[in-house]
Amino acid sequence: RIAALGFKHYYLKDFKVIHHHGQSAKKWPEIARLKAWSKGLYYFLAKHYAKERIAFRFILKMEVFFIFLGRIIIETLKKSLKRQ
Description:
The structure is a single chain. By secondary structure, this protein is mostly helical. Helices cover 60% and strands 0% of the residues. The protein is built from two helices and no strands.
């Protein structure tokens, strides 16, 4: 994709990257984090498992939405239980 956009790309064999999973997202509000996670899950599954199947993509989108909704409910319940 980089080359297709006209950019140059290089391979640096000694270059290292350390990924601290989710560290920047911890600063986001809970709903934004869950929304980003759900969107990423949908795109991943659609890319790898639902190439041209429109019906499957719709079902997939609904499934990811319900996972998102479930996570919001769980997080809300956790917060309310901590307050008690």
